[in-house]
């Protein structure tokens, strides 16, 4: 991986909360904060039984140059350093 270049741009990424995957480990190594979302993300698409379609996995928000503590959707974890 390349060295991280300081920037003022803000970025938030929604991804599956699978800490055993390589992409999750790479993202968590560079992130400023991680927010693990409670429950499953729902997409607003109705099934025939009138319930919303939900993600099949837990989700997390990764933030670079963003304070995720203002979002009250889950548990915030900050990386060391």
Q: Summed up, what is this model?
A:
This protein has 81 residues and is mainly β. The protein contains one helix and six strands, in the order βαβββββ.
Uncertain parts: none
Q: What fraction of residues sit in β-strands?
A: 35-45%
Distance between the termini: 17 Å
| Largest sheet entry | 4 strands, antiparallel
Strand order of the largest sheet: 1-5-2-6
Taken together, the total number of domains comes to: 1
Shape: elongated
Q: Sketch the topology as an H/E string, one letter per element.
A: EHEEEEE
Structure notes:
The chain is mainly beta. It has one domain (11-77). Helix content is 11%, strand content 36%. The strands form 2 sheets. The protein has a 4-stranded antiparallel beta sheet with strand order 1-5-2-6, with helices on one face. The protein has a two-stranded antiparallel sheet with strand order 3-4. Strand 3 (42-46) and strand 4 (52-54) form a beta hairpin. The longest helix has 9 residues, at 22-30. The model has no long low-confidence stretch (mean pLDDT 79).
Compile the SSE list and pairings:
Elements: E1 11-16, H1 22-30, E2 33-37, E3 42-46, E4 52-54, E5 59-64, E6 74-77
Antiparallel strand pairs: 1-5, 2-5, 2-6, 3-4
Give me some keywords for this one.
single chain, four-stranded antiparallel β-sheet, elongated, 81 residues, mainly beta, 36% strand, two-stranded antiparallel sheet
């Amino acid at each position: 991986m390349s060295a991280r270049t300081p920037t003022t741009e803000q970025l938030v990424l929604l991804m599956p909360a699978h800490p055993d995957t390589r992409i999750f480990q790479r993202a968590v190594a560079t992130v400023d904060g991680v927010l693990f979302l409670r429950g499953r993300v729902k997409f607003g698409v109705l099934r025939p039984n009138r319930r919303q379609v939900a993600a099949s996995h837990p989700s997390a928000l990764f933030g670079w140059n963003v304070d995720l503590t203002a979002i009250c959707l889950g548990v915030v974890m900050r990386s060391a350093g």
